[in-house]
Write a structure and sequence with these properties.
single chain, alpha/beta, Isopropylmalate Dehydrogenase, ten-stranded mixed β-sheet, two-stranded antiparallel sheet, 12 helices, 14 strands, 41% helix, binds 3-isopropylmalic acid, binds magnesium ion
């Protein structure tokens, strides 16, 4: 029997609730497909700070590196907002990404047919949207030097090297080759030097993918076009900060940020996580939507473990659940036949997976 080791980082807020449901679904698909998961929990974020004094204990990296993949919930919360930057939950996550070298963050935004009414945009605008933001994750404005703070001045630097741009561009083109073969590279080349280099390198890399249609868009225009006509996009290639913003924006096409998964990959092990945050305001009430995390577990099966059939099974079960009218709290107003709790939603999906 095949055996996979998964590191579970539940984190803060609703993180533990949504991870528990993903585990339920993973165990169900494992029983169905004939493999076995072994989980090891690791600490990150506010809870890690509370227990160990460090938002990213060394042990967490060690556990991650000896696993086949990491499934991650969410981190952060007001409780830790006043800590100095290095001790904040977010710093733990950024260090984690850097240490694992996960330079490519894939954030698909698809619109489930059953939920076209849930988007804040018109159904005719969002129906059939299927795009993926390929966001550079361990460079750019988040990590550039110099950075600093005095009493009346704060500064960060947006830096990209040729090699950093090259590897994320290759990733975007490779993904486009498995999809509609359209890449839109997002930058601010009319203002920023770093974006001029970005555009130059993306054009160079594109010559290796003659079948892929490449366009360039300034980030402000891209933000507008995502709302105006999102169906024009297939793969959106972005730097770190632009991708952070545009992926949150694109999530709203689908109706709830509680639906969208992501994968962070590099040359070592990958991290699979919902794109939403820890939502402390609803934590512990059993109303969070676990679908984003369950869909992230499906991406983990597909990309990290090569278990495409099992991933398909999960994706189909999510669709069936929505089709039959089961909705968590966030989507209760949209064609719900039955409003269910976080754990009921996980159980329904797990049950469909086993059939
Ligand atoms: C994300 C989050 C993180 C980011 C935060 C929590 C550091 O917003 O994954 O999009 O900005 O990358
Ligand atoms: Mg973000």
């Amino acid at each position: 029997m095949k055996h996979y080791k998964i590191a579970l980082i539940k984190g803060d807020g609703i993180g533990p609730e949504v991870i528990d449901e993903a585990v339920k679904v993973l165990d169900s698909v494992a029983a169905f497909a004939g493999f076995h998961f072994e989980y090891e929990e690791a600490l990150m974020g506010g809870i890690a700070y509370d227990i160990t004094g460090d938002p990213l204990p060394k042990e967490t990296i060690e556990i991650a590196l000896k696993s086949d993949a990491v499934l991650f919930g969410a981190i952060g919360g007001e409780k830790w907002d006043k800590l100095e930057r290095e001790l904040r939950p977010e710093s733990g996550l950024l260090r984690f990404r850097k240490e694992l070298g996960v330079y490519a963050n894939l954030r698909p935004a698809t619109v489930y047919d059953e939920l076209v009414n849930a988007s804040s945009l018109k159904p005719s605008v969002v129906s059939g949207v299927d795009l993926v933001v390929v966001r550079e994750l361990i460079g750019g404005l988040y990590f550039g030097e110099p950075k600093g703070r005095t009493d009346d001045k704060g500064w960060n630097t947006m830096v990209y090297t040729r090699s950093e741009i090259k590897r994320i561009a290759h990733k975007a083109f490779e993904i486009a080759m498995t999809r509609k073969k359209i890449v839109c590279s997002v930058d601010k080349a009319n203002v920023l030097e770093v974006s001029q280099l970005w555009r130059e390198v993306v054009i160079e890399v594109s010559s290796e993918y003659p079948e892929v249609e490449l366009s360039h868009m300034y980030v402000d225009n891209a933000a507008m076009q995502l709302i105006r006509n999102p169906k024009q996009f297939d793969v959106m290639l972005t730097g770190n900060i632009f991708g952070d913003i545009l992926s949150d924006e694109s999530s709203m096409l689908s109706g709830s940020i509680g639906l969208l998964p992501s994968a962070s990959i590099g040359s070592k092990i990958g991290v699979y996580e919902p794109i939403h945050g820890s939502a402390p305001d609803i934590a512990g009430q059993g109303i969070a939507n676990p679908i984003a995390t369950i869909a992230s577990a499906s991406m983990m099966l597909r990309y990290a473990l090569g278990e495409a059939k099992a991933a398909d099974k999960i994706d189909a079960s999510i669709k069936r659940t929505l089709k039959e009218g089961y909705r968590t709290h966030d989507l209760a107003q949209f064609d719900a036949k039955e409003v269910c709790s976080t754990s009921e939603m996980g159980s329904i999906i797990a049950n469909y997976v086993s059939k």
